[in-house]
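quick one, two chains, predict together pls
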Amino acid sequence: MYLYDDFDRTLVAERVDEFRDQVTRRLSGELSEDEFKPLRLMNGVYLQLHAYMLRIAIPYGTLSADQLRTLARIARRYDRNYGHFTTRQNLQFNWIKLSDLPDVMADLAQAGLHGMQTSGNCVRNITTDQWAGIAPDEIEDPRIFAEILRQHSTMHPEFSFLPRKFKIAITAAKHDRAAVRVHDIGLRLHRNGAGEVGFEVIVGGGLGRTPFVGKTIKPFLHKRDLLSYVEAILRVYNQYGRRDNIYKARIKILVHDLGIEKFAAEVDAEWQTIKDGALSIDPALIADIVARFCYPNYESLSDQPGELKRARSANPRFETWFRNSVSAHRVSGYAIVTLSLKPEGAPPGDATSEQMDEIATLADRYSFGEIRVGHEQNLVLPHVAQRDLPDLWASLDKIDLATPNIGLVSDIIACPGLDYCSLANTRSIPVAQELTRRFSNLDSQREIGRLHITISGCINACGLHHVGHDRILGVEKNGQEFYQITLGGRADEKAELGALLGPAVPYAEVADVIEDVVAAYVELRERPNELFVETVKRIGVEPFKERVYATR
Amino acid sequence: MPLVKNGKVVDDPYVRILDDAAIADDTSVIVPAVRLLADAGEFVQRAGATGVLWQNDRNVSELSPHLDRLALVALVFPNFRDGRAYSQARILRERHHFRGELRATGQVLRDQFLFLLRAGFDAFEVTKFTDAAAFVETIHRYSVFYQPAGDGQAPAFRRRLSKAGTSRPIIEYLRS
């Protein structure tokens, strides 16, 4: 976990003062709403359907127990006792008063948290693998570079008014849990033929109205050149990205219009003029950032201790949870534990103040005071000694955070939808809630296997619906809520956009259709471990379409 | 529109010239880009200073053959959300080493001042009088900068390295 120093704290405190002044000027009428809007957006403040919404950055998804307690306190004091974890490693509060916002930000700053650049047309919160630093299949900790990029892009004087928002994601593992191919810039740390570690740079991926899988612009970029190369991409985009049409303003459209070769040539020409300048990252700088990350003092333990073995054979419920929610850690004797924020019938990603406080206590007791937030809207205790797993499970079970549905059909990703969001056309949360009820039987969920359902309430795709295996997109038709269903997308290293199943279906029928699709998959798959996406790839959407629409 | 230079509201010594109006030899003028590019010879060896108004959709590197003769380049913010001129400013200052006056014009509001200054602007045609009056206070709101830019401020990571060993992270969240 990165430890703030005087520089970081001073900057965040200065930002709070500035925001307080901006709110005062807005409340006095000196600033019009139009002038205030981009300023509040750059601090994570949206005007939603019912109230202002505050989005808080959780850089690279890492939170300390104290930070989580701060979030719980803010939810209790200024909101309605809960927060919503999003698909972008952020937390949202939905009911905060404008006049309270400066105080909320000041409280957050005390804990080293802020809402800076969680919205607006700037470089957004840099995201990465929620298992960064602990995944067995990782070559380096990608958070070091996420932090370097976070600092570099914070209040960047040139790139705070880009044509549109800009999202960067980093992975360093073989299995991509950060969805780097569907970001404006995706960075994949890997080793080249000479054994050096550097970045594959991917550009122009994204979802929304015009989805694209990103293209590789540089197969291998030396670490030293990370900032200068990213700056060159941003500079080309800032000057030539479209500003006449909000739907065509993302970098993916520029890359698509110019073609990747021409775009790469523009970036390279720009890069040549700056690559050896002040942005060159020397090893001392990297070492300094590494030194600011603190890692747990692991005990030397062995895998599968007696406490764990005994609990696994004695308690079938524990065994089920262990198999579903516990993953291998790079350090022997430790484990990664995912806490499901998707219990049956609940809005995906919500956590109450009480749950946050409990999780903070458990993190202190069992996970070196650290928590992670993943883009699947679940939380993670990253460093749990395996011998503590039975006790941890018992505590989680008590507060409804041990639903063993991670990666299964009821582990649904959903945007806030029309219940909160002013952009949405349809509701998402009730669809997700209904689906978790339909698929509440864990035995049949396990039989279905790994299957990701994602739901977005509008074309902007906050629910990442394009890359869900089975995805649902809400659209409005003649004032009614309809849902398009698409099959076969994925966001990992084999990123692919899905294909449309058929005509959109009304709200009342969505859950039925999804049930039919899942039943068809179970029938059509070649073998029990053929993933849903693989089945769709093999036989196409037609066989699904026949079954679903035949009876309608 | 008040003009801010060196932190103070000052009178503007320049006159804006439209496309083909006559220009007196000893007047300091700002001419449109098309006029400069059409006949750059017109502006050689004038007694008055010459500046150019450069739109934000025009490649700023086209200016490089003329920069020696220009005392001022005015870059445009059609609205404050359109940030192209920040890149143009940095390219002029950092790549073409333009040392004349770099002026921000268009919709220029208080909350852009620091970004503009850091990108290399040193003159500001500010939209509102109250914002112009708050210029000095506004640019001193921040004392820490994370990235190098055109203003030569040392970014935090260099400052950290230069005082290595003395700056200690203070927020300790781990159990001891």
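Chain B touches chain A through 47 residues (CB under 8 Å).
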